[in-house]
Amino acid sequence: MPAAAVAADWPGGYWWHWLFYSVAIIGFLLTMVMGAIYLERRGMGRMQSRLGPNRTGPFGLLQPVADAVKVLLKENIVPTAADKIVHFVAPIVAFAPVLMILAVLPIMNGAVLADLNIGILYIVAVSSIGTVGVFMAGWGSGNKYSLLGAMRNVAAVVSYEIPMVLAIVGVVLFAGSLTISDIIAKQDIPFILMQPLGFLLFFAAACAEINRSPFDLFEADQELVAGYMTEYSGMKFAMFYLVEYAEAIAMSAVITTIFLSGWRGPWLPPWLWFILKTFAVFFLMIWTRTTLPRVRIDQLMAFAWKFLFPLAIINLFVTAIQVLAWPDALPWFLIFINFAVMGVLVLIWSKFFRLGWGRVQV
Amino acid sequence: MFKFERFGLGIFKGMTVTIRHLFRHPTVSQYPEQRLNISRRTRGNELIWSRERCTGCATCAKACPQGAIEIVTAANTAENKYNVTKYRVDTGYCIQCGLCVEACPYDALFMGFSFERAKYRRADLVQEDDALAESPERPASGYFHPDIAAKLPEQTLLVDKITEKRKKQ
Question: How far apart are CA A69 and CA A71, in angstroms?
């Protein structure tokens, strides 16, 4: 595949390019999801002083397969009150955007389905489409818990999209391009060092968007049976389960690409660097999930609007000044400044804003 | 004084706790493959009875708060003693209080050391005569009998990081 010969803004024009990368992305995603499920269950088990599943295959490596087989063989139950078509289409609508995100993330140099010149914008736009699927699931189930979970998800995504995009804009300012390959090419020093605050904001917002703990209250078991997944069973449930992990992997891949310099790295082959970094980010998600308790819905909203949003604005402002005022500044100087700014801002805002406050008495 | 408690320090504390657990030995034993030794003075869920030492005085039956022990004796005039014709314990009623063991004046009763005596049927819980005798499968526990306790294997705890797999008994 002459990847270098492919025009930067269009998938080559060859049908086999399209076909090959479509199949490769699906295979890559499914394999990564299996790895992610294994890593999450074992890692989380060990962090909670348990062993995690270790019965299926050596070290329990076949646990994701066993889970998949079990869930696929289960009966598919559709409630009578359900909107049948919406109920059926929802998992597909939720899954498609995840694959679409991976279409623009290069696994190696040039190994990408489409290197769009609006790559970042495309990621931001596509990643929020999954919410439509979730809302369809909530609405189509004809169940109040499903609907409540779905509405929480929509509210959260609408809120968290803003700090997420603002955090990305800082990266885009530094890179001077929306194209993913350009952003990777600019990361001689990974942007996590140039944009530490941006990374934190993006990570928190991404965790909230893709429904990971501590922001997983769209399926908070104690309040809403299983959120929008309540009425799903069999293969359709498997699809949602897959979407959950696929979104986590896709977001980890996005963070890898725009903050951790993507496939670039010494010694190891580029694809291995990409996978390792993705799993490292995913491990961070597991770590926070194991550690932090779930927030309340009002805390979730307050966190987005009172904490992430102002910090994202300030971060954007500071970044813009740096890019405009010191275009030729030494990177180490900028790294020092940015880490200092991050520390000060996080400390100040933690004092302004406490999650313990704001209980609404109804 | 300036306290960092409300500046997100709690998150870092929690994160260090979880990451330390990741590299720690997990506090679990995989039961059917790994068995921990229980306390040497346990009151296990079976009763050991010695026909040789038993005089048929029925003190145990009187001491039992559950009335789970049934003992029938016959007079042996030739040897001037009682023969026990039936010693029957409904272990389903046993509450492992150990009062029978403490009451026995002739050290003929012991609590068992084993703990895996689940049965499929209720009737199997009723044990009679020689089924109650001590055997390698039914060792006596050191409860109320410290001399026995010294011979039993030492108790193992989860903090000892038991990893070896023992054969099923």
Answer: 6
- Name the helix (H) or strand (E) containing B43: none
Q: Which residues pair with B49 in a beta bridge?
A: B109
Asked if pLDDT for residue B7 goes beyond 70, the answer is no
A211 CB-near residues (< 8 Å, 6+ apart): A153, A218, A219, A244, A247
- Which tokens is A63 given? 């646990």
Contacts of B15 in chain A (CB under 8 A): 287-288, 291
Separation between Cα atoms, residue A176 and residue A172, nearest integer Å: 6
DSSP per-residue letters across A176-210: T-S-HHHHHHHTTS-HHHH-HHHHHHHHHHHHHHT
**pLDDT tier for residue A282 given thresholds of 50, 70 and 90:** very high
Chain B residue numbers touching A45 (CB-CB < 8 A): 26
Between positions 62 and 91 of B, the ones with CB within 8 A of A are none
Residue A77 gets which letter from DSSP? -
CA–CA min distance A229, chain B (Å): 29
Find out whether A248 and A282 touch, Cβ atoms under 8 Å: yes
Compute how many other C-beta atoms are within 10 angstroms of the C-beta atom of residue B22.
18
Chain A nearest C-alpha distance from B8 (Å): 7
Question: Residue A281 to residues A17, A249, A284: CA-CA distances in angstroms?
Answer: 29, 9, 5
User: Is the minimum CB–CB distance between B27 and chain A shorter than 8 Å?
Assistant: yes
Q: What is the pLDDT of residue B156?
A: 80
Considering only the beta carbons, identify the residue of B6, B19, B27 that sits closest to A287. B19
Tally Cβ neighbours within 10 Å of residue A36. 24
Distances (CA, A) of A189 to A160, A186, A266, A272, A335: 27, 8, 13, 19, 10
Q: Give A342's DSSP letter.
A: H
Which phi and psi angles does A18 have, rounded to 5°? -60, -50
A362 pLDDT band (50/70/90 cuts)? very low
| Cα–Cα nearest to A139, from A93, A76, A71, A207 | A93
- Does A2 score more than 60 pLDDT? no
Residue A110 to residue A17: CA distance in whole angstroms: 12
Interface touch B18/A47, C-beta < 8 Å: yes
Q: Is the distance from CB of B19 to CB of A287 less than 8 angstroms?
A: yes
Supply the pTM of this predicted model: 0.80
The whole-angstrom separation of Cα A140 and Cα A80 is 11
Give the model confidence (pLDDT) of B68-118 as tens digits.
999 999 988 888 888 889 999 998 888 888 899 999 998 899 998 888 888
Burial code (b: 16+ CB inside 10 Å, e: under 16) for B125-164 equals: bbbeeeebeeeeebbbbbbbbeebbeebeeeeeeeeebee
